[in-house]
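Batch 3, record 17
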Amino acid sequence: MKRFLKYLILIILFTYGLMYFLDLIYTELYRNGHPRNKLQNELKLKDQHYDIGFYGSSRIERHINCELIEKLTGKTCVNLGFAGANLADMKMLAEINKSNGVTFDTIFFQIDYNYNFENYSPYFLANLAPYLDEAFVEHVFSKRDEYGYYKWIPFYKYMRNEKVLGVRELISVLLQTKNGRNTNIGYRPLKGVGLAVRGKFPDSLKHQNSKVIGLEKLYPSGMLYFFTAPYCQNIQNREISLGLAGKIKNYRNYHDLFDNNAEYFYDCGHLNDKGAEAFTEQLIFDYNF
Amino acid sequence: MLFNSITFFIFLPIVFIFYWFFFKSSKEYQNILILLASYVFYGWWDYRFLFLILLSTLVDFFTGIHIEKCKSRKTRNFFLGLSIFFNLGVLAIFKYYNFFISAITSSFLEIGLNVNFETLNIILPVGISFYTFQTLSYTIDIWKGGLKPTRNFINFAGFVSFFPQLVAGPIERASSLLPQFEIPRKFNSELAISGINLMIWGLFKKVVIADNAAVYTNVIFENYDNSNSLTLILGTVYFAFQIYCDFSGYSDIAIGTGRLFGFRLMRNFNYPYFSRNISEFWKRWHISLSTWFRDYLYIPLGGSKMNMIFTIRNILIVFLVSGLWHGANWTFILWGGIHAFLFLPVFFLKPSNSKVSGPLVLNISNILKICFTFSMVCMAWVFFRSKNVYEAIDYLMRIFQNQEFKITYLSIERYNIELIGLILFFVIFEWFHKNSEHPFSGKFRILKILFIIFITLVMGKFFDYKQFIYFQF
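Prediction for the assembled complex:
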């Protein structure tokens, strides 16, 4: 038995030591290495001022052409949207930016059926994992089931989020390779025309969303705006978004803006580059940038 | 409970500590512990089906005793029939009922009769095909006179439900496993260390090779109608390694876990993709099932002792039933049929090739034979993996019709290159260790183990594809 136990302890110690060591390396590289996605870039923003900022999901990332705004208005603009973002992610990013000294004159949040979700998106949570020892991130995870595992088992958070933070991604960080995702803080246009429907609106909207209330507390009313970006007509229940007007201050609904412009859509929920340009111009006009 | 879950990593040490530290002086207590642990292990998945295992155990325990006790052949046959009827009946209801009902309904429709039989909305209990075959072999062996029934219910229940191999084998014979419950077990460090090594190797195969291959296999098979020839070929190769590493990985962990408790389970895989013909493949693949069918179906049917027609019939029956054993779908039956047609020429042309014989040396002839056998096996896997026969045929037709071998898919999917690299590494690693049951032997043993642990940690998928494929059978 002694021989076996010695062998077992050796294997366990090696595995634990390796996990500890890997955790250190991964954490260091993901926090301080070459940013490979927009979120990593955003988390690194410090002490900057923008005239206009946009938060949201791919329906910001793909729709708001900040270069065009800067060209037409002379104001500085940043597009902080990333695919799959929920309101909770946006609120947290806004809080991080505020604490990092990133300031805006005007901030926009894109809102649609995501009004019904209070949770963080899996992609956002995965990207937060390397920052677990920071209070704002620990606060997020402390209410989640995986918190204990993340905290006490080294490297567990990277094993769990292998798709986003696995060895392949780490090698890319080390080699500083570019990927298909946007590493610039900005707009990523879609090319092509189509009206494919992915998903549908829910049958009803929540009474209220605590994240929206939180955002309204975070920024004064005069600088905070919400809107719903265009959808094509094929999406089911899109009129439900009209109900957001009664729930959110400073809200505009553009869901049917391009009902007669099928050529502006990449798919039913996303505008193509031509549509994004037209939509950006519409915002410039409506908000008098 | 899954071998690749945190629950199992907590469960196993607890059982181990009680087994060797608290109950080491009493094999009776150790067996009770094994039984309880096995029921907890199984019940963790779905406690409702524990009654099925218990019922199967009770039926075979008492029929076994009665078969031996009764002098009259008629009564012995009756009790054997009862055991077979019960075990196959349970399988028929839970696994095949809906399949046969659909087959009968469509047959009636073919002749213009519109009949409507009700199908059942039932879940397939995990591992049912494995433990029913294990208990069947017990009563059949007693009936044949080759085994004495046990009078100890705990030992028998432990044999039926032994948690390391309960849900996906190896399908143990009572003559091999049951006696191990009846003798006192002394801790054997060498055996336990080899068990740990097998578990590490099995986990690597499952979470690194099988689960990474699963990502691409699923994508390719879901979108096969938009894929070019090269992608479709890659899909079959990926699936071949997915299913091999998934199942043999499970078997390795099962055998390794058994060894921690002093049990020796039979080897289930012997580097099957290095087979030089289909006959050899079946001596290296899922050995516990193929030998089960040989001993309890092929030989009782007459084996190859009768004329050629009967031998062909027997071989066809064995392979078709083997296909059906995997699942209630025509794809599995066809998979078995394809293997039968690949097996028959080898069987009749090389009757002397009845053993896995001859050293597996690296020469042109062997490489060609291995590649040919592997491609035939891959072709058959398409039927195994596809949702239906139409899809499988369409998939294979597209490989030949599309004729496009651009590496578009490889360049788009950057991880794909890494998977090919992983598979190549795995094949080379296996080749150099093909004469031992796992690669952690000989020189640099510790270094190899540590390297595999490292690869498992950084490349393993621990959360996306936890389930083992063979659980569904």
